[in-house]
Amino acid sequence: HRAQGPGPAPTLGPLARLEGIKVGHERKVQLVADRDHFIRTLSLKPLLFEIPGFLSDEECRLIIHLAQMKGLQRSQILPTEEYEEAMGTMQVSQLDLFRLLDQNHDGRLQLREVLAQTRLGNGRWMTPENIQEMYSAIKADPDGDGVLSLQEFSNMDLRDFHKYMKGHKAASSELVRNSHHTWLYQGEGAHHVMRAIRQRVLRLTRLSPEIVELSEPLQVVRYGEGGHYHAHVDSGPVYPETICSHTKLIANESVPFETSCRYMTVLFYLNNVTGGGETVFPVADNRTYDEMSLIQDDVDLRDTRRHCDKGNLRVKPRQGTAVFWYNYLPDGQGWVGDVDDYSLHGGCLVTSGTKWIANNWINVDPSRARQALFQQEMARLAQEGGTDSQPEWALDRAYRDARVEL
């Protein structure tokens, strides 16, 4: 406990945001001393850019080597038994659940309305075939038309549904995400190349050093043959009942849910992929966005194993290239607004070879006051006790003392 509370948090200036101009627009920037880089606009919705040669081949190889030294773990996290038990005892009436799922309010549950609720899959990516198999197993759809009326849904025993899902453990190919990953520290004392990359990202984004330095470490991801990541957004919406993961401890607010508040995603391709592995943006630059239109008949545009070729924009992995985009729309006052639905993206199926990427996420709380308080408190902690006093999520000392040269 401190003897006295902190003074008022400073007011933060507006967040930098690059202008897209138009698709195909190129501009020259100097991110390192000895060469120019070119930023090319790939789409305006989301605001998405590409920078060839952002990393050198040697830097790419070093990042992969450091990740292998540290060790990677499976990315997909399946719900715990406690989560399954909680889902099974949820105090929601069957009628309320039906109304929640029935998005077009026609009194019938189409396959696409059920498919849209990805959390129902218990960590498994549900396809139209999966849903119909489940209906058949628990006798939920007597006429076999793939559509549930309110009466048919009311006749279901939800315990049969949970029992069915629990008894069908997903294979790696059936998961929402099939990859392995680790995190690499980029703060003070990190390998000099890791520090240099973070400084390059700082110059690229034009954001304040406090925001970039206090963001998540570098995530390194390996997708083997058959690897994929179905389409998703990197940031969650912040409602009154949610709080950002990076500021929740400082804010000391009691809310039921937390979410990742990632203002920007900077993605690096660390190798050339033999087959597949593109990054797909299924609805990039669509004139309108409608969640239900993502699933039409048997085509689910979010399914990166089967329908990547139908997405609006696909970026081919090229070693050293970076792509970056904004996950939020501006709020009109220089800060974070609503999540940009057009930032929906995924990793297409790797059909041959291995794909290595890395992610730098730039964390900003949509609450300007909370972000300011967070930065102020982290500065105080660093001043009082150096990096040892920072919270565990901000640090990764696992390989800090390793001496790996290019």
UniProtKB/TrEMBL annotation:
GO MF terms held by the record: calcium ion binding; hypoxia-inducible factor-proline dioxygenase activity; iron ion binding; L-ascorbic acid binding; procollagen-proline 4-dioxygenase activity
Topology in the lipid bilayer: Single-pass type II membrane protein
Xref: Pfam families: 2OG-FeII_Oxy_3 (PF13640), EF-hand_7 (PF13499)
Swiss-Prot/TrEMBL cofactor(s): L-ascorbate
Localisation: Endoplasmic reticulum membrane
Subunit description: Homodimer.
Superkingdom assignment: Eukaryota
Signal peptide location: none
Keyword annotations from UniProtKB, A to Z: Calcium, Dioxygenase, Endoplasmic reticulum, Glycoprotein, Iron, Membrane, Metal-binding, Oxidoreductase, Repeat, Signal-anchor, Transmembrane, Transmembrane helix, Vitamin C
Protein name, per record: Transmembrane prolyl 4-hydroxylase
Residue intervals of the Fe2OG dioxygenase domain: 214-364
Recorded catalytic activity of this chain's protein: L-prolyl-[hypoxia-inducible factor alpha subunit] + 2-oxoglutarate + O2 = trans-4-hydroxy-L-prolyl-[hypoxia-inducible factor alpha subunit] + succinate + CO2
Source species taxonomy: Eukaryota, Metazoa, Chordata, Craniata, Vertebrata
Function statement: Catalyzes the post-translational formation of 4-hydroxyproline in hypoxia-inducible factor (HIF) alpha proteins. Hydroxylates HIF1A at 'Pro-402' and 'Pro-564'. May function as a cellular oxygen sensor and, under normoxic conditions, may target HIF through the hydroxylation for proteasomal degradation via the von Hippel-Lindau ubiquitination complex.
GO cellular component: endoplasmic reticulum membrane
EC number of the protein: 1.14.11.29
